[in-house]
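Dear colleagues,

As part of the handover before I leave the project, I'm documenting each prediction I ran so the next person doesn't have to rerun anything. This entry is a single chain, and its sequence is reproduced below.
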Amino acid sequence: MPPAASVVLDYLRAQAEVMAERADDVRTDTPDAVHRSRVATRRARSALRTFASLFSAKRVRLLRTELAWHADQLGAPRDAEVLAERLQGLLDQLPAGQVTLPARARLTDNLTQVHATGHRALVASMDSPRYTDLREQFDRFLAEPPIRSSQADAGLDVLASLLARCVTRVRRKEARAAASGDDPHRWHEVRKAAKAARYCSEALLPAFGQPARQLAQAWEQVTEALGELQDTVVAEAYLGTEAARAREARESADTFLAMISAELRLRDDALERGRTALQQALALPPLS
């Protein structure tokens, strides 16, 4: 087994194990199970993209497509759960006089329903032949890795170069985002590129040790801060919709407007932290 492929396959195997071990807990909606399974699914898909040059293009493409499908199924209940927790936190921070009972009920009841609907759809998808095929396809990939003949002797230097390519992609995205100012869409693209660099660094920990750990931690700071920024975008959009619905029902929209103002303040802070963390990550030396 080529050293490069061995490192990547170990990482992929770890993600497959999390998906398998958490499957029953995901079905019963055990706390944190959906989150952990979704992260493992995303890590596997990201690694397959980053290290695609080591393996058969067709096999990688097919597996990534199915992992993306499963991640989407996991995302519906998880996103509702995250948004509910976030909005509940904002409600608790507002002065009591700014929180109306109809507004609290709208936020609580609607997201509870969205989560329940999403989880039912997730369980149904996991009972489908497509999910069974995904698990079997992933197992076959690990048991009989489709390593390209041109990569039969790929060493650890190949992994370092692929991480460097991830970082170059982040730099390009960052330049475009910086030119746009504070456009959340552009910074979300930076976050996705930074997440690939983070997962790649994590995968290389066994091979490169502490330098890879420092990179992984630095990129985690970037993705956390820019993730917070994206959360404010999602929350603002949701609150805007609920404000409109409240007006249509002849209810006060003041609570939603106050929460939107709070989200915009949090967005500015998250962007500043994200840009600072990004510069620190980009300043770290590459692996060698």
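The radius of gyration is 21 Å. The mean pLDDT is 96.

All the best with the project,
I.
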